[in-house]
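Researcher: Checking consistency across runs. Here is Beta-phosphoglucomutase again:
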Amino acid sequence: NKKGFIFDLDGVIVDTAKYHFLAWQNLAKSIDIDFTHEQNEQLKGVSRVKSLEKILEWGNKTISEELFTSLMGKKNEEYLSFIAKMTDEEILPDVPRVLDYLIEKAQPISLGSASKNARPILEKVHLLSKFNAIVDGNDVSKAKPNPEVFLIAAQHLNMKPEDCIVFEDSVAGVQAANTANMISIGIGEKEVLHEADYIFSDFTEIENSFIEELINR
Ligand code: BG6
Ligand code: MG
């Protein structure tokens, strides 16, 4: 039995959601826009361009194309400065255990992330070699909640969408998985991720026996 296991990156594999938040918050402040935790929740899983568009919309601001490009660059620069200091300790709890269990069971594994920084981050925390395929922000034209990223991942794994399982921490990502006709597993808060087929607060709650059940579904 084989299923395709697709993992989001930020907030699922590594604890980078906090760095995205800090970088967006600093950027918003620099153009006099208040940026709240609830708003940040809506930016999880959302591409860099779309995120800035939303922040400007919330702040009722229109800016030139040039400033837009330079702000995006600035955000990513600050984000990358946080990433540069990352260590393996920022891999979220029990993620390696689940990845290794899937590898032991010969299950195909793909990344399905909106980030354009996915490869360097996975390299930095020494997880890149665990993946059979990497699909990230460089490969897609339609951002989550559009299912494109997960559908491409399924293709790379040679699996039908209905035989794929997606781990996601964002509302947009859960919606993308559901639209792709995949099983969605929300990692985070029940109240936020209620559209997911299953919800766990983190991977420590996901037992090998549950993974086994998913494989044999
Ligand atoms: C997603 C994050 O994984 O990637 C978003 O949840 C982020 O917060 C998006 O905006 C794009 O990432 P990056 O690294 O290309 O700016
Ligand atoms: Mg995420």
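Researcher: Does this match what you'd expect to see?
Model: One thing to look at in this run: Residues 145 and 172 are 4 Å apart (CA to CA).
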